[in-house]
Design brief:
mainly alpha, binds fe (ii) ion, EC 1.-.-.-, transit peptide, metal ion binding, Alternative oxidase, 15 helices, mitochondrion
Amino acid sequence: MSTLIPRSSFTLARISIISRPLICQACFHPHQLPIASGSRSISISARSRIQVDEPKKASLALRPEIRQQEKQSGNGKIVGSETKGAEGPHYQDQNHATTDILSNESSTGPWTMMNPIYTEQELDTIKIVTRTPETVADKAAHGTVKILRRAFDFLTGYKATPIPDEVLKQDPLPIQELRSKGLLLSHHKWLFRFILLESIAGVPGMVGGTLRHLRSIRLLRRDGGWIHTLLEEAENERMHLLTFMTIAQPSIFTRALVLGAQGIFYNAFFLTYLFSPKTAHRFVGALEEEAVRTYTHCIEDMENGLIPEWEEVPAPRIAIDYWRLPLNSKLIDVIRVVRADEATHRFVNHSLANLDQKKDFNPFALVEADAKTRGEKWGFTRKESSDFAQEQQLKLMKASQCQHEQGQLRIKQH
Ligand SMILES: [Fe+2]
Ligand SMILES: [Fe+2]
C-alpha cells in the first residue's frame, strides 16, 4: 500500500482521494467518516447515515406539522403541495406513509443525490465576482456568454440599471411607472426569466457527466470523481426549475421557447464539450457569474419592496424539502439559496476549467470548498485545487484513523 499523501505537491493525478478515500489505512476497510466544515462538505456515507438516522427530517412532506400547516392555510395547501413541480412519491416513504403511494399524493422523499443546506451566514457571503479571461478559449467562452446575455435581456425585457436612491425613498414607490418605463421587471417577468435561465442551466452538467461516463466506459478507466459532481449540478439546476415551476404558469410561448432553446443549446454544448471540455467548463463558469448577478438583482429588488406581489409568498414545499429550509420560509429565502447554488456552480466550473481534463481528478469529489470560499472566489487555480485536495485527504484519513482507534479501544474495553 502506498503512502497517504500524493507523491508530488503539484499534481492532481488520481492517486489520492479517488483511489482510497474511505479506506482506513490501519485495517483497509471502509469507514463512515465524520467530515468537518461546510454544510455541503459531507461524504456519501455520512449523507446516507443522516438520512437513515433521521427519516422524519429526510421526509419533510410526511411530517405532521407540515400536514397541520396545510390544513390551516387558506386553501388547505402549502404552495407547491399540489405536486406540480414536486418529485412525487419516493420508495422510502412507504415505511411512513399511510396513504396510497400510487395516488401521487404530494410527498417528496429523501434526496438520493446531495442536497445543499446553508446557514444564514453562508448565504450572506455570496458576492458577484468576475474572472478575467486569459486565453483565447476563455475570451471566446466569456464573449459567447455576453452575447447570449444581451439576447436574453432583450427577450425578457431586462435592464441591469439600478433604481436611483431618490426614487427608492419615495412613498409609495412608483412601481407601476417604473415597470411601464421598462426599468423594473414585474414578478411575472422575473419568473419568465428564471424559467428560461434554469431550463438551459440544467443541460451542461448532464452533458458533461454523460460524456465523461462514456469516456470512462470506452477507455476502461476510472473517471476521477468528475461524473457525480456534474450530475449533482444538473440535478441541482433541475430543482431550481421545478421550484419556480410550482409558482409559475408557463404559457405555450414560454414552453416553445424552452423547447427550442434546449434543442439548440444541448447540441451546441455537446459538441463544445466533446472537442474542448475546458472551454465548456469555462463557459459554464461565466454563465454562472451572470446567474449570480441576476439573482442578486432580484433579491435587492425584493429587499427594496419593488416586487410587492412576492412579499408574503411562502417557500414552495419542494424548496423547503430540498434545501431543508425552516417551515416559515418565504420566496426570498428560496432565491437566496438558489443564488448560493449558482455561486457554487461558478466556483466549481471555473476550477474544473483550470485542470487537466484527462489526467486530473476532481478535487471536490468528496468534500467541497466551504460556502464562503465558493461565494467569494471565482474558483481555484490548479495549484489551489491540488493543495485543497491534499488537505482534505489528510483530514479524511486522520478522521478515519481516529475512528478506527476509538473502535479498537471499545473492543478492548468489552
Ligand atoms: Fe440555477
Ligand atoms: Fe447554476
